[in-house]
Protein backbone atom coordinates (compact mmCIF):
# COMPACT_ATOMS: atom_id res chain seq x y z
CA UNK A 1 0.00 0.00 0.00
CA UNK A 2 1.38 3.40 -0.94
CA UNK A 3 0.95 6.65 0.95
CA UNK A 4 -1.61 9.27 0.05
CA UNK A 5 1.20 11.57 -1.11
CA UNK A 6 2.43 8.95 -3.62
CA UNK A 7 -1.12 8.58 -4.94
CA UNK A 8 -1.50 12.36 -5.23
CA UNK A 9 1.83 12.66 -7.05
CA UNK A 10 0.79 9.91 -9.47
CA UNK A 11 -2.48 11.73 -10.13
CA UNK A 12 -0.52 14.98 -10.67
CA UNK A 13 1.61 13.22 -13.29
CA UNK A 14 -1.51 11.95 -15.04
CA UNK A 15 -3.03 15.46 -15.01
CA UNK A 16 0.16 16.84 -16.57
CA UNK A 17 0.36 14.03 -19.14
CA UNK A 18 -3.23 14.27 -20.43
CA UNK A 19 -2.92 17.60 -22.29
CA UNK A 20 0.33 16.56 -24.01
CA UNK A 21 -1.43 14.90 -26.95
CA UNK A 22 -2.54 17.31 -29.67
CA UNK A 23 -5.47 15.07 -30.55
CA UNK A 24 -6.75 14.90 -26.99
CA UNK A 25 -6.57 11.10 -26.85
CA UNK A 26 -4.45 11.19 -23.69
CA UNK A 27 -7.54 12.49 -21.90
CA UNK A 28 -8.72 8.87 -21.96
CA UNK A 29 -5.77 7.76 -19.82
CA UNK A 30 -6.51 6.62 -16.29
CA UNK A 31 -4.19 5.63 -13.50
CA UNK A 32 -4.26 1.90 -12.96
CA UNK A 33 -1.93 0.67 -10.26
CA UNK A 34 1.18 2.10 -8.68
CA UNK A 35 3.59 -0.79 -8.97
CA UNK A 36 6.66 0.72 -7.31
CA UNK A 37 7.57 3.95 -5.58
CA UNK A 38 10.66 5.33 -3.92
CA UNK A 39 11.94 8.75 -2.98
CA UNK A 40 15.37 10.35 -2.85
CA UNK A 41 16.63 13.84 -2.21
CA UNK A 42 18.98 15.02 -4.92
CA UNK A 43 21.19 18.08 -5.25
CA UNK A 44 18.48 20.31 -6.74
CA UNK A 45 15.28 18.25 -6.52
CA UNK A 46 13.37 15.90 -4.29
CA UNK A 47 12.84 12.94 -6.61
CA UNK A 48 10.01 10.45 -6.57
CA UNK A 49 10.60 7.36 -8.72
CA UNK A 50 7.41 5.61 -9.78
CA UNK A 51 6.43 2.66 -11.88
CA UNK A 52 2.79 3.19 -12.81
CA UNK A 53 0.21 1.45 -14.90
CA UNK A 54 -1.82 3.59 -17.31
CA UNK A 55 -5.13 2.37 -18.70
CA UNK A 56 -7.01 3.39 -21.85
CA UNK A 57 -9.24 1.56 -24.32
CA UNK A 58 -7.20 3.20 -27.10
CA UNK A 59 -3.72 1.87 -26.32
CA UNK A 60 -1.96 0.41 -29.35
CA UNK A 61 -1.47 -3.32 -29.62
CA UNK A 62 -4.89 -4.23 -28.25
CA UNK A 63 -3.63 -3.99 -24.69
CA UNK A 64 -5.61 -2.58 -21.80
CA UNK A 65 -2.71 -1.10 -19.86
CA UNK A 66 0.86 0.04 -20.24
CA UNK A 67 3.56 0.28 -17.59
CA UNK A 68 5.80 3.34 -17.34
CA UNK A 69 8.74 4.45 -15.24
CA UNK A 70 8.31 8.06 -14.21
CA UNK A 71 10.43 10.46 -12.19
CA UNK A 72 8.72 13.36 -10.51
CA UNK A 73 11.14 16.12 -9.57
CA UNK A 74 10.24 18.84 -7.09
CA UNK A 75 12.66 21.75 -6.92
CA UNK A 76 14.08 22.08 -3.41
CA UNK A 77 13.95 25.89 -3.48
CA UNK A 78 10.74 26.93 -5.23
CA UNK A 79 8.92 23.54 -5.12
CA UNK A 80 8.08 23.64 -8.85
CA UNK A 81 7.33 20.14 -10.09
CA UNK A 82 8.28 18.51 -13.36
CA UNK A 83 8.33 14.94 -14.56
CA UNK A 84 10.08 12.63 -16.96
CA UNK A 85 8.55 9.49 -18.42
CA UNK A 86 10.40 6.59 -19.99
CA UNK A 87 8.07 6.37 -23.00
CA UNK A 88 4.84 8.15 -23.80
CA UNK A 89 1.83 5.85 -24.09
CA UNK A 90 1.40 4.62 -27.65
CA UNK A 91 -2.16 4.90 -28.87
CA UNK A 92 -3.98 3.28 -31.80
CA UNK A 93 -3.25 5.42 -34.90
CA UNK A 94 -6.82 5.25 -36.23
CA UNK A 95 -8.17 6.43 -32.88
CA UNK A 96 -5.63 9.26 -32.71
CA UNK A 97 -6.85 10.41 -36.13
CA UNK A 98 -10.48 10.16 -35.01
CA UNK A 99 -9.81 12.16 -31.86
CA UNK A 100 -7.93 14.75 -33.92
CA UNK A 101 -10.82 15.11 -36.38
CA UNK A 102 -13.33 15.45 -33.54
CA UNK A 103 -11.18 18.17 -31.99
CA UNK A 104 -10.97 20.04 -35.30
CA UNK A 105 -14.73 19.75 -35.77
CA UNK A 106 -15.35 21.14 -32.25
CA UNK A 107 -12.97 24.04 -32.84
CA UNK A 108 -14.69 24.92 -36.14
CA UNK A 109 -18.06 25.04 -34.36
CA UNK A 110 -16.61 27.18 -31.54
CA UNK A 111 -15.00 29.54 -34.07
CA UNK A 112 -18.24 29.88 -36.02
CA UNK A 113 -20.20 30.64 -32.83
CA UNK A 114 -17.67 33.28 -31.85
CA UNK A 115 -17.84 34.87 -35.30
CA UNK A 116 -21.64 34.93 -35.09
CA UNK A 117 -21.42 36.68 -31.71
CA UNK A 118 -18.97 39.25 -33.05
CA UNK A 119 -21.17 39.92 -36.08
CA UNK A 120 -24.21 40.35 -33.82
CA UNK A 121 -22.32 42.80 -31.58
CA UNK A 122 -21.14 44.78 -34.62
CA UNK A 123 -24.66 45.04 -36.08
Give the overall form.
Answer: flat
By DSSP (H or I, 4+ residues per run), the number of helices equals 2
Q: How many domains comprise the coordinates?
A: 1
Q: Tell me how many strands there are.
A: 4
How would you sum up the major sheet? 4 strands, antiparallel
CATH class: Alpha Beta
Tell me the Rg in angstroms. Answer: 19 Å
Note the gap between the termini.
63 Å
Runs in which pLDDT lies below 50 for 5 or more consecutive residues are none
* Beta-strand content bin: 25-35%
Structural class, judged by helices and strands? Answer: alpha+beta
Main-sheet strand order equals 1-2-3-4
What report would you give on this structure?
There is one protein chain. With 123 residues, the protein is of the alpha+beta class. It has a single domain (4-122), classed as Nuclear Transport Factor 2, Chain: A. Helix content is 36%, strand content 32%. The protein is built from two helices and four strands, in the order αββββα. The protein has helices at residues 4-17, 93-122; strands at 30-41, 45-55, 65-75, 81-85. The protein has a four-stranded antiparallel β-sheet with strand order 1-2-3-4. The longest helix has 30 residues, at 93-122. The protein is flat, with a radius of gyration of 19 Å. The N and C termini lie far apart (63 Å).
Amino acid sequence: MFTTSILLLSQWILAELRPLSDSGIYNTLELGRILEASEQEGVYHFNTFLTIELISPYLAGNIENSVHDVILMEDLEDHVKSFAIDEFPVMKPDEVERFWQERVDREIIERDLLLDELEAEAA
